[in-house]
Write a structure and sequence with these properties.
The chain is α/β, with parallel strands linked by helices and 315 residues long. The chain contains twelve helices and 13 strands. The strands form three sheets. The chain has a six-stranded mixed β-sheet with strand order 5-6-7-3-8-9, with helices on both faces. It has a four-stranded antiparallel β-sheet with strand order 11-12-10-13, covered by helices on one side. Strands 2-1-4 form a three-stranded antiparallel β-sheet, with helices on one face. A hairpin with a 2-residue loop joins β8 and β9. The structure holds adenosine-5'-triphosphate. Adenosine-5'-triphosphate binds next to β2 and α1. This is ATP-binding cassette domain-containing protein.
């Protein structure tokens, strides 16, 4: 169990982390989501005793990281994949870590296998690794001692789509076996797919937290009908405000149950009724971090600036 209680970190007159409190439970993946500079890395560094808190506490299993004997054996940590020793081979990095923690050397081969680094790649110096390979090596290193807790800062950075898929499955399996996972990301869709619990941080403060289902429930409803005009009328009568989303469909802030009831009461046949999709959570993320997001403060780009973005496409 990870427990963060009224944790703050001040650098000069800048409050990088501002009185945050959260818990990560065994058997769950907790996503720590926030824009650049929100305070994610500072929090994870305080959890792993690399940065001293200004106030509050951060404990793992009831203890500060620095008070845990042989902490690597109980807590797997990956904070900066690019910080590995460039002159050593991947295998050497893992072998030294295994020796330091008093582990059997066969764990090195098991972990190389687990993270998909081939024997040939394991013989290469880390300085010649791609960022994705460094992430895989860092994940191997964090899992070496089969710890109960994993703390990962932006582990998906540099991984290709297949690598991201692999990592999701790995972390899911790890949590399903009772492990506690805390991972950070500034990418909403990454967190959305992988996490059971989500903590959103902006400008050092937690702006939302809860289960993914709870936060998604706040993302409203998408609804489609054979007769969209009748549907719009029925929802309006029920006091539900809608926004046209497709030719025959609407988005609304209301819950799916309320939308379904309103349509049924008016005898309107629906062809689709579901929680608001990813865009809904994206809106939520942007709303929650609005004002905390540096992009919200930046002037809008001049017309014609940058590539054209297709409707529905990813920027
Ligand atoms: N050692 C330090 N000295 C001064 N300010 C710092 C220091 N470390 C972090 N900060 C500041 O604290 C704030 C939070 O930084 P942090 O690295 O925790 O953000 P983050 O959410 O991890 O961002 P990113 O997604 O860009 O990695 C930033 O404004 C950063 O400039």
């Amino acid at each position: 169990m990870i427990q963060v209680q009224n944790l703050s970190k001040r650098y000069g007159d800048h409050l990088a982390v501002d009185d945050i409190t959260f818990t990560c439970r065994p058997g769950t993946v907790t996503g720590f989501l926030g824009p650049n500079g929100a305070g994610k890395s500072t929090t994870l560094r305080m959890l792993t005793s690399l940065t001293i808190p200004t106030s509050g506490s951060a404990t793992i299993g009831g203890h500060r990281y620095s008070d845990i004997p042989n902490p690597g054996a109980q807590i797997g940590v990956l904070l900066d994949a690019s910080a590995q020793h460039n002159g050593r081979t991947g295998r050497e990095v893992l072998t030294i870590a295994a020796q330091t923690m008093g582990l059997d050397r066969k764990r090195v081969d098991e972990m190389l296998d687990l993270v998909g680094l081939s024997p040939k790649e394991a013989k290469r110096r880390v300085g010649n690794y791609s960022l994705g390979m460094r992430q895989r090596l860092g994940i191997a290193s964090s899992l070496l001692a089969d710890p109960q807790v994993l703390i990962l800062d932006e582990p998906a950075n540099g991984l290709d789509p297949a690598g991201i898929h692999w990592m999701r499955q790995l972390l899911r399996h790890y949590a399903d076996r009772g492990g506690t996972v805390l991972l950070s990301s500034h990418l909403l869709h990454e967190i959305e797919v992988i996490a059971d619990e989500i903590i959103v941080i902006g400008n050092g403060q937690i702006v939302a937290q809860g289960s993914k289902d709870e936060l998604l429930a706040g993302a409203g409803t998408f609804v489609r009908a054979l007769e969209p005009d009748e549907l719009a009328r029925a929802l309006s009568v029920a006091g539900i405000h809608v926004t046209p989303a497709t030719a025959d469909g609407f988005s609304t802030d209301a819950d799916p149950a309320d939308v379904g009831k309103a349509a049924a009461a008016a005898g309107v046949a629906l062809v689709e009724l579901r929680p608001g999709d990813r865009a809904g959570l994206e809106d939520l993320f942007l709303q929650l971090t609005a004002g905390n997001q540096r992009d919200a403060l930046a002037p809008a780009p001049a017309p014609g600036f940058g590539p054209a973005v297709q409707q529905g496409g990813q920027a």
